[in-house]
């Protein structure tokens, strides 16, 4: 039986306010609260809320036959909790159905897997805990930011205890192979992989309302017929896309909601089912390994990481950011930790990309140019680095600082232990005193 695996990515960064050189050292708040609230509420109204409602109706209607999966970045969850809590409520209802799976990723939707393995592990753990707290699910499948993957990342992921992961079915990696199977990592054979079917995913995400497309209009019947006509041995069809496709990228007037509503009916008529990533990875054996020595993602035609790490601006910003990672992890100041997460979101570096600048393509940037994005970010980062250095000066190297903090931590633990012993001693003495007084009173009587 053929199965469709629907997976939706949800992410919104904490966008930066206009931060000038003269703000460095005097203004330590970096974020554009107005834009963040406005964008989240607009997208929630157009996409998240109606899409959640529609998918819950489908889940309830088909009673265990229609299934989907989500990965929601930690920073997006934080914004939902602040600006659109009804979206969280909608996801909770979907989670309770038992037919919706939540995946784990980096908390900040960051590029830490490329630059800072320790940070990557910490963010995945933090995100997994947040998902479990909000939706009562412990994630079993990992998807890295923007489906970024390589053999080195596979090693990290497997070392963290994960045996299931999703990524891009890049043509230059697969060659003649089809993405419509379960694969395994070449470097970690016990790590199973689901690969995005770019053709079918992009037909919905990008071409659905394109009047110039030779297959326009795309109907549910036509789409399911395409899947049904694939070779019988191809069983898995992974449709991975941004959740904003439903109602935002493809507005409601295009018919996108009606298209999704109709898919299950036509699929079931053709004997095609729906399954979550975990269900597919548990029920199918890998047909082979894929070797990915160079990093891939689901971005652009190249399916690489050049959208975030392709020019000198981006490389300089990322180098400056992750150079201070070790000192930030030694820090115990909550605000610094929070800013560190927000500054890692991949969007900040995507806005610096010069790949599409000037050719009419949008990268959803709030800046007029990649250079403005770079200058603004580096001003913010300069102030942030100054705050970190004020806590932990450059004159103290990392090893010495770490040893000092370990000593301080051990002293704190010793003080707590002694305080506990003191309370015990005081309590015991009080009991002895009461007992002695009681005996004296009894003897007198």
Q: Using the coordinates shown, work out and report the CATH topology of the largest domain.
A: 7-stranded beta/alpha barrel
Low-confidence stretches: none
Number of strands: 12
Query: Number of helix segments?
Result: 18
The largest sheet, given as strand count, sense and whether it forms a barrel, is: 5 strands, parallel
- Name of the level-1 CATH class of the largest domain: Alpha Beta
Helical content stands at: 40-55%
Order of helices and strands: EHEHHEHHEHEHEEHHEEEHEHEHHHHHHH
Second CATH tier, the architecture of the largest domain: Alpha-Beta Barrel
- The total domain count is 2
How does the SSE layout of this entry go?
Blueprint lengths: L2 E8 L22 H30 L5 E5 L1 H10 L1 H12 L3 E3 L9 H4 L1 H19 L6 E2 L7 H9 L4 E5 L2 H4 L7 E4 L6 E5 L1 H8 L14 H9 L7 E7 L3 E2 L2 E2 L4 H14 L3 E2 L2 H7 L5 E2 L15 H4 L2 H11 L2 H6 L3 H9 L4 H4 L19 H22 L6 H47 L1
Parallel strand pairs: 1-2, 1-8, 1-11, 2-3, 4-5, 5-7, 6-12, 9-10
Antiparallel strand pairs: 6-7
Tell me about this structure:
With 445 residues, the chain is α/β, with parallel strands linked by helices. The protein has two domains: 3-290, 7-stranded beta/alpha barrel; 310-391. Helices cover 51% and strands 11% of the residues. The chain has 18 helices and twelve strands. The chain is globular and about 85 Å long. The N and C termini lie far apart (90 Å). The mean pLDDT is 92.
